[in-house]
Amino acid sequence: MRPPVSHHRPHTASVRSDPSRPRASLRTAVVWDVLKDALDRRVEVTGRESRTALDVLDTGGGSGNFAVPVAALGHRVTVVDPSPNALFALERRAAEAGVAERVRGVQGDVLGLFDVVERGGFDAVLCHGVLEYVDDPAEGVRLAVDALRPSGVLSLLGAGLGGAVLARALAGHFKEAQTALTDPAGRWGAGDPVPRRFTADQLTELVEAAGVRVDAVHGVRVFADLVPGVLVDTEPGAMEALLKLEAAAAELPAFHAVATQLHVLGEARGTGEA
């Protein structure tokens, strides 16, 4: 039996919506809260080495949903993404946010990572929405981990199997829900745009096999994709209440099974560790 994972609790009071992108906030708030805390803790360590700006790698970071806010914290961020259009949008977004000097976009992908970035050169690696699309998820995780410095932070976000099954069932597509439930890749049919989905156990096993200690597992978008948008957008206080509910449910294993996405936070081995 797997030993219990220590669950870092998101600070519910600090979860805030973005007034300009309220629905997007529901999809990122929990991950951002946990990630920011992890980066702050890493700064405490590097600060003792007179280095408070972290080097962060965002694989598949696209237009900078996480990279730009991370850079706004004062860190240096390298985004590796295969899409030139996404990297162009990243450059524009970073400039608008006033962090262009701290954000670098490089065309590439996780399986060719060390063709474009330094091995072992980063304090933190974000691997969000990548493993669903690579041919070998285990290799993708291993390469992401190889980019970390000793005791570096790994933030992994992957599509959740249970969330897809639940969504198809609630939409009345019961055969597709059954197909996703039994398919080895968690797909509901030929028209499914997501090539692969994971359970929490599958993601933690991939991370542990790559030599990373799992510090926390969170369910993401447990309710956000199921609640009608008109309710969130028009009911006074609904957005803030839903954000707090998401944060409260995120750490509970019972809700991992129905989350649209799963977030794993881990720490690489330190110098001298076996």
Automatic annotation (TrEMBL):
Source species of the chain: Streptomyces anatolicus
Pfam families: Methyltransf_12
Gene Ontology BP term (one): methylation
Protein name from the UniProt record: Methyltransferase domain-containing protein
Sequence ranges of Basic residues compositional bias: 1-11
GO MF term list: methyltransferase activity
Lineage: superkingdom: Bacteria
UniProt keyword S-adenosyl-L-methionine present: yes
Segments of this protein annotated with the region Disordered: 1-22
Residue ranges constituting the Methyltransferase type domain according to the UniProt record: 57-154
Keywords from the named record: Methyltransferase, S-adenosyl-L-methionine, Transferase
Residues in the signal sequence: none
